[in-house]
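Following up on my earlier thread - several people asked me to post the actual chain instead of describing it. Fair enough. Here it is, all 139 residues.
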Amino acid sequence: MYEPIRTKSVHTTAGTPSDFPHRSREEELDIQLAGHLAALLSVTDEIRAIGPSADLDAAAERLTEQVARLRGGAAPVRASSAAAVREPRVVALHQRAHALAGRALVVAASRADTAAAILAAERMDAHAPAAEPRELAAR
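Reply from S.P.:
Thanks for posting it. Predicted structure:
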């Protein structure tokens, strides 16, 4: 009924060497975790610019260390912003930091990186109360 295929398909990739390097799952998770932690560091720097605190300074330092470790020693780019920020913006920053820490926690747990998971969980806890708008917290 059907005639067998006599030539190789143009879509067949088996047996041909690839022209680009492939990364392992661990390398992909390292890249993803470093990205989440670097984004969290950026938001932390923005919050520090609004209201400096020793807790945020220590968190920024630990985040910098973890990102550098995951990137093979390359230090992350640090943001400096000294703009005046209103209260709703501060709440939004804390909400973003909380969400980023949650994403970092998921990736750290999947790659069994205890140090990064502990740091992400601590940052989630630190940003959770401040992430709630004042109207909701008063109820």
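Confidence is low (pLDDT under 50) at residues 135-139. That should answer part of your original question.
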